[in-house]
Design a protein that fits this description.
The complex is a heterotrimer. By secondary structure, chain A is of the alpha/beta class. Helices cover 36% and strands 27% of the residues of chain A. The longest helix of chain B has 31 residues. By secondary structure, chain B is mainly alpha-helical. Chain B is 72% helix and 3% strand. Chain C is globular and about 65 Å long. The longest helix of chain C is centred in the middle third of the chain and has 28 residues. By secondary structure, chain C is mainly alpha-helical. Chains in contact: A-B, A-C, B-C. The structure holds adenosine-5'-diphosphate and magnesium ion. The site of adenosine-5'-diphosphate has 11 residues of chain A, from strand 2 and helix 1.
């Protein structure tokens, strides 16, 4: 992907106002520097995908947004600076994060996982939201008293997504929702994401290795390489970019 | 038969008190995966608070105990904030050292303020027996202690299962990072765990020294810490009801073994407790009732 | 701040810098008993603090106990609190063999050392499965059990039960050791001699000086063996396990064997320390070897410096003299007198433990090294510099306490992977700091969390 930066920057598919503006973000684990100036933007109602090889820094980017790693630079949420905030405070501003590996509360029941997802909410509709997720994911409804750690990988992924959405977030971060799932299940997860998008208009930033599927539901995308954004564009532009096709789409 | 019943009742009564302090240890362990070596000393301090409030301030005993629980919870909040929170919970050595330092300081402060002369704590339960047969006496103290422990455990279970702070507490103890991602603030939640544990410890302390056969002085908790820790480990370290079971098993083993096997001297109860800890940790690290694998790294 | 003065490694200046402090230390160590024999006293306000030879001997005995604990905790990373148990075994075995069977003190080591080594290994076995906090808990239990074992009815004949056991044997200074002449010589030093050493020593004083010299020799031997162990190949394995157990195993270290043997060695030093205690005090009692001693050893370790050998010298002195002196303090302005009658020593040691963990987690030895580095800087000899710096880089960041996110570069003092002194380490740290652009303040004790969101 040598000529990547020369590709045209994609014009946003949606013209909503920006929710998340990441600019010149650097991040490090101790002395290991991982991000070297990330810039990206997510607008209201958009689904944006981040592509990149293993170890490129995708997860670290998500962690930087959530205050889980030492970060410098600027990350604005609705125009408000959030670098240096603790993860709980970022969450309270309306960012929900489904971390890589799902981060379920393994020894809590399915029901409690959903309850804790609504931890910061004060309204009366928590119960009805939970029931709605049981409708969207009937298998969760059947196992509501079961310990989350005993669910299958796909079920846990759905639980993680539902838990994140229980907070009624402004922005949903999804880190490799397909990781470790069988292809059939992956299809299913993405179908669900698509319908969530259609039904609730949730703004999402999705990290995904499975570029085909991800670009299928996304408006725009970024390609990250060795801690830098090397390419960005609309989903269509990225799908037709030769380098992206060679590296991520496999045709 | 009489002897057996006598041993049984003895074992139940000491087992119940071990269990309450074990519950305090379990609460802190669940919150922070830390074993608080100062837990026994905090309970000792709490029992002195209750004594001072009841005897010197003339406050009714039960109210004095509740006030002492609140007072010690406030103290615990300060300790957590100043001495514990700055350290990485995954790095054990500094935390072990800090809680050992607290152990010395609390013990010394109690000795400096109140001296080492034994005092007798007011009775929490009526004197005399509920039922007796020869030398086997089921004392009101034993029944009262057991009842208190049961009520306490039910209340704690409800608190953890049914309230929002309880949910936060369980979330933090289940997955620290994810709890932050859903907006649970870990610091205040863990602080709440310390406060709760210390208040429970104070109650345990009051129950322990309220036994007419025991007295209050600044050294009573040193032995008990080991028993309570053994009870907690036996029960699985993260299980409240396991702590109760562990405490009672230990109390019974202590009174039966020491009572029936002549060549085992009285003092060996403590050794039995330590051996129990070793065996459990080696053979069944998540205890008899622990719900998840206790991390042994 | 002025620049540290550079000293080239291997130069005459470097040799002076290295050996002169040792010579001074050796002089002080040998002459201290002649000074302490007169129990010099210092007045602070209305209080008089004394420095007696009996207490000094006691401190020397404890140094070895702290040393043994330090090898296990500081170098091998096994958090054990149970070394007071082995000190108890050593103290009681010596007491009974000397009193009841007429052995000489030193001969009892033939029993004490192997017995403690074996018991230590046996306890080290479950420790292979019990780690971290659980090991700390289990070994604290062990420490708590010791007093009840020696109180047992069945052992009373040998242990003296709850009353303890007085050792019916005196260590008299033998004629061939010129203790009195040395005392006379020291007191005849012009100007300071008589002031520091009085009239010389005689009779019981000379016997006490002899005990001191024996203890000091045993201590020197213990430090020598410990140092050789730590700087040897097995020593490197011991440290590798502390730094990264899995990594050590991958690199061919026999982890179970090494850990068990380290436990045994540590216990053996504990036993030696107990024997030395019996020699120093002439009396053993159950509660001497209880939980408090177990925690005192930790205090000694932390005060001196976790992961240092020399810290044990400071540690032994602190855990004996802090309680002695606090008991002698009669008044402190603003503190009610009744507080000073209680266990003020315990209180001060507890506070020391907490304060040092916060502000100087490397202990006094580390603090002294930092101060020294401000004045002198050892410049490595050109030809050897390269390699050593690389080695040191890896280690300078891996301290024993508060190592979060690789940020807290606690000195690995006395670390065998480093040349004898620590200049390379300092230099390596500067290199690291430059790389990282970070502040060179390695002892930011309760290091900030890298993951800011997690526990605050
Ligand atoms: N906790 C950590 N400590 C040190 N380095 C890390 C840590 N997590 C990730 N890294 C490193 O950071 C780089 C980026 O990792 P990550 O963001 O997880 O990549 P991706 O999600 O794109 O696969 C990798 O080189 C990885 O080795
Ligand atoms: Mg990733």
């Amino acid at each position: 992907m040598t000529d990547a930066t020369t590709s045209p920057a994609g014009s946003p598919a949606s013209t909503g106002k920006p929710i998340l503006q990441v600019s010149d973000v650097h991040a490090a684990y101790g002395m290991v520097r991982v991000l070297h100036g990330i810039d990206l933007e997510v607008r209201d109602g958009e689904v944006v995908v981040v592509l990149g090889a293993n170890g490129a820094g995708k997860t670290t980017t998500m962690r930087a947004i959530c205050g889980l790693v030492d970060t410098t630079g600027s990350i604005r949420l609705d125009g408000k600076e959030i670098v240096g905030k603790k993860s709980a405070d970022v969450a309270r501003l309306g960012v929900a994060h489904v971390p890589q590996g799902r981060g379920t509360f393994a020894d809590l029941s399915v029901e409690d996982n959903l309850q804790v997802g609504a931890f910061v909410r004060k309204d009366k509709e928590i119960r009805s939201d939970i029931d709605r997720w049981y409708e969207v994911f009937p298998v969760l409804g059947e196992r509501r008293q079961q310990q989350a750690g005993t669910l299958s990988g796909g079920e846990q992924q759905m639980l993680a997504v539902a838990r994140a959405l229980m907070g009624r977030p402004r922005l949903l971060l999804l880190d490799e929702p397909s990781l470790g799932l069988a292809p059939m299940i992956v299809q299913n997860v993405f179908r669900n994401l698509q319908s969530i998008r259609e039904e609730f208009g949730t703004t999402m930033l999705v990290v995904e290795q499975n570029a085909n599927l991800a670009l299928g539901i996304a408006d725009r995308g970024y390609v990250i390489e060795a801690g830098r954004i090397v390419l960005s564009g609309t989903a269509d532009e990225l799908s037709s970019d030769d380098a992206v096709r060679a590296a991520y789409l496999g045709y | 038969m009489e002897l057996f019943l006598a041993r049984l009742f003895d074992g139940l009564s000491s087992g119940a008190t071990y269990a309450v302090i074990a519950v305090a240890l379990v609460l802190i362990y669940k919150a922070t995966t830390l074993i608080n070596f100062a837990q026994g000393e905090l309970a000792m301090l709490g029992s002195f608070f209750a004594y001072i409030l009841a005897i010197e301030q003339g406050i009714p005993l039960y109210l004095a105990i509740v006030l002492a629980m609140l007072l010690s919870a406030v103290l615990a909040a300060g300790i957590e904030r100043v001495l514990i929170r700055p350290f990485d919970p995954a790095d054990h050595l500094p935390l072990v050292i800090i809680t050992l330092g607290l152990f010395l300081v609390i013990n010394a402060v109690a000795g400096m303020i109140w001296g080492f002369d034994p005092r007798s704590f007011p009775r929490m339960f009526p004197e005399g027996d509920v039922w007796s047969m020869g030398i086997a006496r089921l004392r009101w103290y034993t029944v009262g202690t057991m009842a208190t422990v049961l009520v306490l455990l039910v209340l704690l279970t409800l608190l953890l299962k049914k309230t929002k702070i309880g949910l936060a507490f369980r979330a933090v103890s289940s997955n620290l990072e994810s709890s932050g991602l859903v907006g649970v603030r870990a610091g205040p939640t863990l602080q709440f765990g310390w406060m709760l544990a210390t208040a429970v410890g104070t109650l345990a302390g009051a129950l322990f020294v309220a036994d007419p056969f025991r007295q209050l002085d600044p050294t009573w908790a040193q032995r008990v810490l080991i028993f309570a820790a053994a009870a907690a480990v036996l029960g699985g370290l993260d299980s409240l009801w396991g702590a109760l079971a562990g405490g009672i098993i230990l109390g019974l083993v202590e009174s039966m073994v020491v009572g029936y096997v002549d060549w085992i001297p009285n003092q060996m109860g403590l050794a039995a407790a330590v051996v129990a800890i070793i065996i459990v940790l080696v053979i069944r690290p998540n205890g008899l009732f622990g719900s998840k694998a206790v991390e042994r790294v | 701040m002025s620049q540290p003065r550079p000293i080239t490694e291997g130069s005459t200046a470097h040799r002076v810098y290295r050996y002169v402090p040792w010579a001074i230390f050796a002089f002080i160590a040998i002459t201290a008993p002649f000074w302490a024999a007169h129990t010099p006293a210092f007045s602070i306000g209305e209080s008089t603090l004394t420095f007696s030879l009996g207490n000094l001997n006691h401190a020397v005995a404890y140094m070895v106990g702290v040393l043994g604990l330090g090898i296990l905790v500081g170098y091998n990373g096994q958090i054990s609190l149970g070394n007071s148990f082995f000190m108890g075994v050593g103290g009681y075995v010596t007491a009974t063999l000397v009193t009841d069977d007429g052995w000489s003190f030193l001969a009892t080591l033939v029993v004490v050392l192997p017995v403690c080594f074996v018991i230590g290994m046996l306890i080290g076995l479950p420790a292979l499965r019990i780690k971290g906090l659980y090991l700390a808990l289990t070994t604290l239990g062990l420490a708590a059990v010791f007093p009840s074992i020696v109180r047992m009815e069945q052992l009373r004949d040998r242990t003296g039960g709850a009353n303890g056991k007085r050792i019916e044997s005196d260590l008299d200074a033998p004629g061939w050791v010129p203790i009195e002449p040395i005392g006379d010589f020291l007191s005849s030093i012009p100007l300071v001699g008589e002031w520091a050493y009085g009239e010389g020593v005689s009779g019981r004083e000379a016997d006490a000086v002899w005990v001191y010299l024996l203890l000091a020799a045993l201590t020197a031997a213990a430090f020598w063996v410990a140092r050789n162990l730590i700087y040897s190949r097995p020593g490197r394995s011991i440290i590798a396990i502390r730094d990264n157990e899995t990594g050590a195993a991958v690199n061919g270290v026999n982890v179970p064997m090494t850990k068990t043997l380290t436990f045994g060695f540590s216990a053996m030093l504990g036993g030696l320390s107990g024997t030395m205690y019996a020699m120093a005090i002439g009396f053993v009692a159950p509660d001497v070897f209880g939980i408090n001693l177990a925690i005192f050893l930790i205090v000694g370790l932390v005060v001196g410096g976790v992961g240092t050998l020399s810290g044990a010298i400071i540690g032994g002195i602190v855990i004996v003299f802090v309680p002695v002196w606090s008991a002698q303090i009669e008044s402190v302005p603003g503190v009610p007198e009744r507080f000073l009658r209680g266990p003020t020593g315990l209180f001060i040691l507890g506070v020391l433990l907490i304060v040092l963990t916060f502000f100087l987690p490397g202990g006094i030895v580390y603090g002294m090294r930092k101060i020294r580095a401000r004045f002198v800087q050892i410049v490595p000899d050109r030809q050897v510099a390269g390699d050593d710096v690389v080695v040191a880089t890896g280690d300078a960041t891996g301290g024993k306490m508060s190592r979060h996110g690789g940020k807290t570069a606690l000195d690995v003092d006395d670390d065998p992977t480093l040349p004898d002194d620590d200049p390379h380490e300092e230099q390596a740290k500067r290199i690291l700091d430059r790389d990282d652009g970070a502040e060179s303040a390695p002892v930011s004790a309760p290091a900030q969390q890298t993951n800011q969101g997690e526990t605050t």
